[in-house]
Amino acid sequence: MRHYESDPDEMPWVRGKPAPEQVHVVPYDPDWPVRYERLAAQVRQALGAAALDVEHMGSTAVPGLPAKPVIDIDLAVADPTREDEYVPALEALGYALILREPSWHQHRLLQLASPRVNLHVFGPDCPENIRHRMFRDWLRAHGADRDLYAQAKHAAADGVMQVMEYNKRKESVLRGIYERMFRAAGFI
Questions:
Q1: Which residue in 24, 79, 98, 130 is deepest, having the highest Cβ count within 10 Å?
Q2: pTM for the full model?
Q3: What is the DSSP letter of 78?
Q4: Strands (E), the chain
């Protein structure tokens, strides 16, 4: 239930900080789940048993929710620090290791340029995997919060050139939804 933050002194960028890019939130695309299924099958085939879990996360996983046109995937591996056990196979598929955040559950981020994919790598039983799944499922089942989040996403994207700024701008709405979700689950 805790909101985790990365160490602000950590230098997570593997290839240097990315260039600014306009953030665009677009209407829901029913092809997003189809695209995810194709991508997940490729990841599972490339990694075999090393892929403990592969899940469609983020806004593209919520029918009817506007989103940045980027498929977010959570990948669970036994130990994210053992990059040699999964990164080369993912690089062979065209993914690039972009981010390494030891202070945030040993998170690794790999990206695919086309189609646009953020592949988040965590260990099994990581609280972020559970939080992401709960949030996705909550938005699928609660239209009022889905609509509230859609409004926050559109407002946050207005004129924004950095994803981190976009995330910060919608954070209060996101945390309010998390609070309702955790309260409904009996966690708080």
A1: 98
A2: 0.93
A3: S
A4: 53-57, 71-76, 96-101, 107-112, 117-122
